[in-house]
Amino acid sequence: MLEQFAVGELQGFSAITAGIENSNYIVRSTGGEYVLTLFEHHSADEVREFVRLARHLGQKNLCVPSPVVDEAGEWLHGLKSRPAILCRRFPGAHPEVLTDGHCQAVGEALARFHLASADLENRRCDERGFSWWVNIAPELQHDLNSEDQALLHDEIEWQTRQRGDWQALPHGWIHADLFHDNALFEGDRLTAILDLYNACDGAWLYDLAIVANDWCVDKQGVGLDALKVQALMDGYRSVRNVSDDEWSAWNMVLRGAALRFWLSRLLAERLAQQRGQTLPDYKQPSEYRDRLRWHRKTH
Fold first, then answer.
1. What's the rounded Cα separation, in Å, for the pair 217 and 225?
2. What is the pLDDT of residues 234-244, one digit of tens each?
3. Please, are residues 201 and 125 in contact by the beta-carbon 8 Å criterion?
4. Is 234 exposed, middle or buried (0-12, 13-18, 19+ CB in 10 A)?
5. Are 83 and 38 in contact (CB under 8 A)?
6. Which end of the chain has less Cβ packing within 10 Å, N or C?
7. Confidence (pTM)
8. SS3 227
9. What is the pLDDT of residue 3?
10. Tens digits of residue pLDDT in 184-197
């Protein structure tokens, strides 16, 4: 396969064991390092659909895993009866101790992501958006104690009353999953935003709230650190202007983002239990339940 690309001669490759849904390999050639992805559960047409955003952003020189085009102008290939793409490997590592500098850098990068994707049409529907919250909550509440059931019911009702405000927010493509393990850094310099497979249509401020709920956590691990949040906002606003009316919805979207990942983790916990497994500590639903409670008290 590699001979189809102008990337030099193969020097070696190794498997990336961190992947769950797809098979990934580091490919080393005389032209640099690349990541080869084999899609285990998606057809070629599905891959074309959810990789087109990365291609669009890559053409605008954003640091995202955009597929390399071969000498025939093709970027999607078949390997071992599976769709496959080759992307440049970015330098850097996932940040472990998050700093104000990391938060400012990711805020700036997210704003560039939003603006650069604005002219790409046919945005995908958010499969974990408001309709999903409303539909999945009654099913998952049976796994909760009475106190958490009351919290979930009250938050769903409150968010339902805010739908007009949600729909009035500026919308576009959002990453929807920009946790710190989906970014690479060298020091405080962001080198790549990864994993665009959940990108969809949504409120831009909500996307920023998803980032805040993961990147700006305080030392107690429950609420948000005000200085980190300010750094995140400063970075974002250095690229994209945000009106006072839009900022007034900040607590609403923070609560929505916490609700979304509480529900997602509750579902993941149920599915894990059905398989006789347990979720790792860093994926526990209680983290986002507690963050939701904190946001409800601090607006």
1. 6
2. 999 999 999 99
3. yes
4. middle
5. yes
6. C
7. 0.93
8. helix
9. 73
10. 999 999 999 999 98
